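Notes from the 1:1 (GR / supervisor)

We went over the backlog. Supervisor wanted to see one worked example end to end before approving the batch request, so GR pasted a single chain during the call. The sequence is below; no edits were made to it. Supervisor asked that the structure be written out right there so they could see what the output format looks like.
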Amino acid sequence: MLMRSKLFVPGSRPELFAKALASQADGLSFDLEDSVAEDRKAEARQTLKALFGTPAVAASGKLIIVRVNALDTPHFAADVQAVAQPGVHLLNVPKADTPEQVREAAEALVRAEQRNGVAEPIRLLLNIETPRAMLAAAELAGAHERVAGLQLGLGDLFEPLGIARRESAAIQQAMFQLRMAAGTAGLFAFDSAFANIQDQDGYSEEAALARRLGFLGKSCIHPSQVALANRAFQPDGQEIAHALRVVQAAADARARGVGAYVVDGRMIDGPFERRAEAVVALARRLGLVSQ
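Structure output shown during the call:
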């Protein structure tokens, strides 16, 4: 999955849709939750339902995500029924704290797909944004086969607890814990939004940390953050060159019946080979190296 950047788009702002579809974001997260006023939620879900039936969505080539309202709101069931449409790839579920809630969301999604004639299963992206969800993150990750990834929500997680949003030690610990939880089920981990649009250095630093901790990409609340995320979550020339040397050395080692070997002064075996192969595959997909 390629999702270095995921741009939030309010479902109640159709004037932004065409620009978002033409942007450089790998994924678009159409939002029915926080960015939509209570009295406009029904309108927004119908607007999105109409959008997903247009050729422009498929032509964009983007990963399409919808963040619905939480299960304990009066909007969840109607949201899922409206937006579980062909062309939607992920349903982003906020504030699911228990495996039972994850299974409830998955079952509602399956029913909506059946009613709407969706042939390609839509998967779940779970927001981890409460203390309970963080402590149960590994259980949530394995609660249902439809779960594709876990997404960190630092604002919702930190603010009620009085934790400073920019406290580096807390950020690193939360990222690491989420990545380990996602890893238990073979899922991807996705990084949080960054509210200070003007602080591009801060965004880039947080994105770089997330990539070092194995995250797939980072949320963007403004188009100006898309390029920062794309740059942070793609390999640089040095990383690609090393990965290519590892891939070649691995092929040579297998031909010679050798298990572990040295590349660029580093001992290499299976886990490092798989990491190098992933880097090369991503670089090829982004056109950074020839096929």
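Supervisor's comment: The beta strands are 5-10, 27-31, 63-67, 90-93, 123-128, 147-152, 188-190, 218-220, 261-263, 266-268.
Batch request approved.
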